[in-house]
Amino acid sequence: MTVTRTLWLTTVGIAAIASGASAAAQNGATAQPAPVSTAASRTTVYQAAYFAQFAPRTALDIVQHVPGFQLDLGAGQNGADVRGFAGTAGNVVINGARPSTKSESLDTTLQRIPAQGVVRVELGSGDLYGSDYAGKSQVLNIVLSVAGGYDANVTVGAVRRYPGYVQKNLSGNALFRKGPSSVSISAGTGFNKQFEEGTDTLTDAATGEGVEFRRKHNVYANKNPSLAGAYALERGADDAYRVNFRWQPSRFDLFQRNIVTPSDAPQHEDNLFQHYRDPVVELGGDVTRPLAGGAIKFVGLATRRKRHDFDQYLQRDDLIANGAQTVGGFEQLIDARRNETIGRVSWTRSNLLGVSFEAGAETAFNTLDDHTTLSAIDENGVRVPIDLPIADATVKEKRGEVYINLGKALSSHLRVDGGVNYEYSNLKVRGDATADRTLKFLKPNITFDWKPGGGWHTQLSVKRTVAQLDFYDFISFGELSTNRVNGGNANLEPQRTWEFRATVEHPLLGDGLFKLDLGHDLVSMLQDRVLICDLDHPGDPSFCFDAPGNLGTGKRYFASLTLDAPLGKLWKGLRAKLTGTLQRTRVQDPVDGRQRNWSGFFPNWQWDLTVRRDAGAFSYGFEAFDNQHFTFFRTDEFDTSFNGAPGWNAFVEYRPGANTSLTLSADHTFGKRNRLLFFPNRAQPDEVINEYRERDQHISVGLTLKQSFGGGGAAKK
Known about the structure:
22-stranded antiparallel beta barrel
């Protein structure tokens, strides 16, 4: 019998023992088992009964209440492209394996799993779960029930938005189990409509005199219904078959009413319309089989995305109420297809000549076919095309990667894991631009994991990473909402980073946690913003565009603190969690040559405080958060966003029964934005305008009903 199969049988055995505690908790028992940490398994185990006090409905609810654990969704969960399959790993696995998906975020995957089907969770170091998680100080393994039956959840919600609109949503998920087989399915309406109002104040940066004032009313409507499902046949850790799919049509619509008051012209009313149709479908799966005392795993993944984005901005000579006529505007249509296909094979063995061993190979084929049309609308309504550099192009990338990872326990307290990846890729751009390049990267990594005793746990790691290029950065397009053009850069290269990490953690007040993360990133060819000019019009600044580009060496330093504290001695059922980060980023600006922060969301500080109390059938709490301003340093503007005040949300939850919860919630954010605009650009500024924006979505109040069904596996895990 292989080591992996032995561990799987041990998991099933412990699951059967744990079911008694889980059932007792669901039947009203007040005991809440303390987490168990074992040196042999290098994990801290939380049984299902521990989470009964929080009345979780999904696996995501359980994950959010693991002491000291901070959910990492993985790179790319904000929609950005990520290099290969490993980059989206996050820090949660299910039955010891990661889901074979990239388009579905980790939190969405967890929401598909009913909490009744979770036996326990195991918190340990990343090396326990393969090379995708090497170097991560915390990875959470969700162990599911193996008993037959079904579990399901239905969620019905309504949110009152400003100015009185009630937004309704419905979602559900179900998990069916029979022997080693399971089927899960989930669906939701995914509707989000928000009303926002605010102002733009434009002044001359040199004199402070007013240039223009705008009062804006925005209506956003996201329609993101989704359907997802998965099938698994899991006879053991080295004998499993899984397949999953996801479909999401993804629609977004915006209507903006803009009352414009120039300092030297009559007041008039403009409108902005946006209609985006960006469906995505994904099919993935994996097969694991025993081989040579270990396990071989095959992973396949295909993601298909379409993009049909229409923007229109209409300018008028008066207010619509006064019979205004359209006198101009702009219009843009983006039609694109973005495809990704990934194949991967790996072989792992927990003990090969005294070391844990993993080797594998991955291949990927990525494509983008994009057609962008930008037009000006004259006073007669005629569309006049505007030439953009690289408005129509295709991008193709063929990439291959091989890797090897080794790990060994040097003592009962110290472990070392290391490996190396070699990557080869060929990239071709065709259409309005032609660019070919071949890239080769060697990416080593090493991690030291040390438990000196007394509850202390430390980890040191060094690894080299390579970022995935966003193929849309090769394409030029307009932003009608901000009245600017983003140039495309067909010669863009991925940035390379040496990541240095150190983590120290220790239990706090029982089952709480103190955790300190320190890090340094040394980046070569940092991707930021550069000025690109049309070579056919040398010296003409009107043919120069702000675009993505590589700057040179960038540095980042950060320290993150997590304090997760049970405060039951102050007030029974009280718990607080504080996370805070200080960071500093530096790179040389390509225009003025000065050192500055990186562009994007890299605030010098940010914090988040969550306080919650569970008292019998009731739970209540709040969250407050804030961050320092952050800036996009474009070559023609400084675009800075900041909060008008700390954001917050609060809730009160009532549970009339073991399977029902009713939650009343409220939230509010107040955003501000300051744009310093340079005409034509920062290199040759003839005029500088300051644009100050305020946006308020007002307080939203929601009511959510969650109902659980089934529980066929609760009594026998």
